[in-house]
């Protein structure tokens, strides 16, 4: 599985500014809700992506919010880690924390002590480099994702801006749909002897 596959709905951003939504299980009217909010559907490596091109944070925030509100009527297993849907800071200041996925590792940079404290409370450990943190290497991908979601939510609750870089440079780099396990063969019909025994 990829980091995009652990939740019913995943909202993320590519490094070049596209916002995307992946719906990982059938949700009634999801297509209509997402296209109605302004997303464009595109087939990509076995899955449907719902896309917003690079635009202002306010526009992306509003469109993603409308879509998420509708989808949450059908599932609460929705994660939004898209940096493109966040309102830009009026001062243009850097986020208080940046979390990065890269080659199976998750690292973070905290620009303030309070952001570092929040990261530490959510499973990140300081590295030898100043202001740098990392998640333990032994965490499963699902546990790492959950730690990032908790940390991001916690940082926002303190009014700290955070950017999550998913390690997806462009739309073409969004992981393909997970392969489906082969379906089990149908059970063999009972032998004539078993059928006779059942009738007795």
Count of extended strands: 10
- Helicity level, as a percent range? 25-40%
- Structural class computed from helices and strand pairing: alpha+beta
| Major sheet characteristics | 5 strands, mixed
Mean pLDDT: 86
Q: Rg to the nearest angstrom?
A: 21 Å
Which strands sit side by side, in order, in the main sheet?
A: 3-4-2-1-5
The share of residues in extended strands comes to 15-25%
Q: Helical region count?
A: 5
Distance from first to last alpha carbon: 50 Å
Low-confidence parts lasting 5 or more residues at pLDDT below 50?
A: 182-186, 194-200
Please trace the helix and strand order, writing H or E for each element. Answer: EEHEEHEEEHEEHEH
Globular, elongated, flat, extended or rod-shaped: what is the shape?
A: globular
What does this structure look like?
The chain is about 30% helix and about 20% strand. With about 200 residues, it is an alpha+beta fold. It is globular and about 45 Å long.
Layout of helices and strands:
Layout: E1 9-13, E2 19-23, H1 30-36, E3 40-44, E4 47-52, H2 57-71, E5 78-80, E6 97-102, E7 105-110, H3 113-121, E8 125-126, E9 132-134, H4 141-157, E10 162-165, H5 192-199
Parallel strand pairs: 1-5, 6-10
Antiparallel strand pairs: 1-2, 2-4, 3-4, 6-7, 7-9, 8-9
In summary, what is this structure?
Helices cover 28% and strands 22% of the residues. It is α+β, with helices and mostly antiparallel strands.
What keywords describe this structure?
alpha+beta, 22% strand, 200 residues, five-stranded mixed beta sheet, 5 helices
